[in-house]
């Protein structure tokens, strides 16, 4: 059964608020967090603390990372990448933490007009902030949540003091990270979203609305440090599970995607192909397709469809559409989709490794080998077909025999 979390940014979003909300929603995930940091090679000067907090109205979880106040607070982005790369964290946690730091570093580089290699973190470079990002990455994967949505984001107002001096709220780097999100001003002074919180939201790519066919299972509340007048400084995580209306086993998930579409009738096929390739490479783009049509005066044209994560239609994608094509207008709509549950496994056939996607259908399992892997084997058509059949059959057997093992591992080469 798939799970979905809707993040309700009542007070805003920060790393500790996100972790607190996740631990309040999934209390068992709190076990072993300190051991996780030790096994990953983080120093003993970092200590975790979390417990119940009541603001007079709502009870939730307050999470804090306690670090030696004499710990180094200024750290180059390259040093953080090295620390995380050499750590013993799981691959999903490590890759997600690296992505979160890269988001922040790219935003800081753009704000200060520097190259990525020149970026040095101040507040975010402290051990407590590094741990916030690592634990947030860990909980994203450990929770097993498949999809996310988010409320409007409180933008905040006023000024904050930082290592860079006095900055407007939201901080310039946060403004860049929040591009594409719906925001609002509730008139409350103060910083509502931190760089870590903004990076988490960007990574999750949440939809602006909750998917249909969901049942509310539980809610968790994570408190922040600052107190705002008239507004509880908390992040609520509402945990939903999918409801299978057919009453059968839940073979698929439902979510939403945004579709951008437009027509072209005055651009050459070669130019269209090149332009769509560039659009396809934009972050957040799921798929780009084109179909022929005949329009006014029987002119032949191409209808272009671009699928993206909803609520995250980046200006760069829109700019790419207008820059790489001759389109004068783009339509945008949100549509529902049903996705079969699937996983990718690796199998070995004749000493070559092949990626195979295995999908669960109501009628049984099906598999499809990655064609690029088959092509790399340098076989003729008959050879590729034989390898394809063997790899796909082996992948299905592997999934059936190792349902409780880590997905994606070939335990029977």
Summarize the helices and strands and which ones pair or pack.
Layout: E1 3-8, H1 15-25, H2 33-39, E2 46-54, E3 59-67, E4 75-76, H3 77-86, H4 91-112, E5 120-121, H5 127-142, E6 147-150, E7 153-154, E8 159-162, E9 165-168, H6 172-177, E10 183-184, H7 195-204, E11 214-223, E12 234-242, E13 252-264, H8 269-280, E14 285-294, E15 300-308, H9 315-324, E16 331-340, E17 342-349, E18 352-361, E19 364-369, H10 371-376, H11 381-401
Parallel strand pairs: 1-6, 3-11, 7-10
Antiparallel strand pairs: 1-12, 2-3, 4-5, 8-9, 11-12, 13-15, 13-16, 14-15, 17-18, 18-19
Helix pairs in contact: 1-5, 3-4, 4-5, 4-7, 8-9
Descriptive overview:
With 413 residues, this protein is an alpha+beta fold. It folds into three domains: 3-242, no CATH class; 253-340, Transcriptional regulatory protein pf0864 domain like (Alpha-Beta Plaits), CATH 3.30.70; 342-401, no CATH class. It has eleven helices and 19 strands. A hairpin with a 2-residue loop joins strand 18 (352-361) and strand 19. The radius of gyration is 24 Å and the shape is globular. The two termini are 30 Å apart.
